[in-house]
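As noted in the main text, all predictions were made from sequence alone. Below is one such record, for Alpha-mannosidase.
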Amino acid sequence: MRKVLKLSGKGSKSFGSSAQIFAGAFPENYEPPPGGFYYEVNDPSPVVQDDINLFDYNVQERVDAFVTAAVSQANITRTNHIMWTMGTDFKYQYAHSWFRQMDKLIHYVNMDGRVNALYSTPSIYTDAKHATNEHWPVKTEDFFPYADRANGYWTGYYTSRPALKRYVRMMSGYYLAARQLEFYNGRSNTGPNTDSLADSLAIAQHHDGVTGTEKQHVANDYAKRLSIGYTEAEKLVASSLACLVESASHTGCQRSTTKFQQCPLLNISYCPASEVDLSQGRNLIVVVYNSLGWARDDVIQFPVLDENVTVHDSEKREILSQIIPIADAFTGLRNSHVNAYLGRTPAETPKYWLAFTVSVPPFGFSTYSISSAKRAGARSSKSSVYTFRSEKSTVEVGQGNLMLTFSAKKDANYVNNRSSVKESVEQSFSFYSGYNGTGNDKDPQNSGAYIFRPNGTSPIKPKSQVPLTVMRGPVLDEVHQQVSEWIYQITRLYKGREHVEVEFIVGPIPVEDGIGKEVATQITTTMETNKTFYTDSNGRDFIKRIRDYRTDWDLEVNQPSAGNYYPRDVAIIFINLGIYFQDDKKEFSVLVDRALGGSSLVDGQIELMLHRRLLLDDSRGVAEALNETVCVLDQCKGLTIQGKYYFRIDPIGEGAKWRRSFGQEIYSPLLLAFSEEDGDKWMNTHVTTFSSFDSSYSLPDNVAVLTLQELDDGKVLLRLAHLYEMGEDKDLSVMTSVELKKLFPKKKIGKAAEMSLSANQERAEMEKKRLVWKTEGSSRKQAVLRGGPVDPAKLVVELAPMEIRTFVIDFDDKGHHVFAA
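Prediction:
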């Protein structure tokens, strides 16, 4: 039996021993011990028969089995306290049968006297462990990747159901913005609010939810609940924005007349609000909301019907814009899903994207007006489009510091003229064949929703030479490639930005050959990385990984790919960043738009698993294959996904700033709300720019607001997070501060009570109850940098690297929340 220890783990290298938590692993997963102690009504375990007149009387046999199991577990853990987890998945459907048998076991075992049994809780158990005054070993690495047998690596679920993972991520970012707008407008328990979306997101965090290890009909239910929650929050966002844009003309929002629409299917180029005819003198108004605490310049794009449009900002200045043809791959994806979404084919399909750069203040919005260029006497810049064929040597894209030069072989030279970074980058696709339990191996373990067990890998290449389509313009450049019949890719560079955006469409994954497939992309450089790379933990600390090696045990590698796959953080947490590696001169970073699995299986290469479609169950409880299909008008085909990842190469030691700041932008995309107007009156009659912060203030570059939420009692929950680890960046891994008065300039703060992270108790009370654990080895207490107490007069919050501080703020003026610009 494997050795199991109770231990104290270091949760953060920035906080050292101050972040230690009591952790452990049980010998029987989270189930009862061996010996027959399962008591669901249909379980085969023997009941405790204590009627001596019956032939199946078995009290002593059951007591002996109990004591044997208890002693066996006690022999592999420290102290004389052990915990049994009496239950597992799908149990307690009839709780009476469980408690009746446990009552009997506790009674007769305690009469026997060899061990003492009692009903307990994790907190009682932990207190008992702590009271023994034991010295505990310290574990500094995490538990990933996990395997329950030689070929049973639980690394498939990092990517399983990538569409649901993306939906949860998208709704999480939307929820953060919606809660902010709910606060500005004032929370309503009767009108639209964010409660339904909060509930659906909370349910989706179930360990068999966003991980993708549920049955298909359950995944459908999660998505349906998210959609219902979004619909309610969408109304709240529209009404709050209407209140804000009209707040110059009156107080209160009861008489708001502005109607805003949003576009949840914008990723597949479907946005009825922007697909309007502007030829008859109407203007399209776009209000762009920024939920981040610093000012932001970014490119937005949405579909339009006419290529002849012009864009003006809130100062009525014409700004640079670009018309980009919508690729056929997106048109097909759009029309198919809109048909499913509406139950009918859309009346008209737009041919163009309109793209332009917006500038938005922190916790605020800016307004842009789109009109007919013919009427305005101006024109948008159309993208120049041409085909790059194999007989030509190279093609260069990019405007500004970053340039990519593509060769006929489809690899690229990456050159940043500002940082003098140069690197060869080759991007490719492959698929792992899902093991189907029919090989010569004695272990019939299949690849499935939980398990990643590949049976070989195959490159994915076009059947014939496919040319690149290059689109250039004043805002961005794109390189389009049809990788295969079911993979389409766009490589995109924005003017003034120094990262590469890669957008992909993958699916339907073909399975006509009877083989399930797990699709991955590889980004290969010439960097010498010595088997070492880094992945994030919960979107916070980055953890060092070494291929085929663990620091705290001797690793036997049975599955070279699956055994080295890691989550882009634990897949059930939704503020993740990505993966990077480095050599002695450069660091290469990849950020993702959803939780997924990946690794560096070859030096200088990063691999991301994008999609999975498998035909057999992996025997971990799902009891069906991970074979997602979409049915429209009785025609079913495999799921197609659309997504993005981003990469950048920096001089050594300079990549953290992009990973942290741009990672926040991925999680909190700009929120777009559309309206229409006759003529050009909007800019004169509405508030066109807004920020809830003091006009001279923005958050420091190393701080993010994780939560701004009005509570039922009118108080406000505020969470502030330092984004950098200790030593991660020479300028930003330092103590910083936030001025609460400037976050709420139009309200008077009466009290700011600091709370625990979960906000269920005041921090001072929590600190009194915190258990201090003795550990093996050095007893010298490590000095840890933490923010100091908050002065109730100055109301300045200090934040040390990686610190999150939570406050419940009580305002003296709990009146109507109208934030006039």
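The first helix runs from residue 59 to 74. DSSP finds twelve helices and 42 strands in the chain. These features were considered when defining construct boundaries for the mutagenesis experiments described in Section 2.9.
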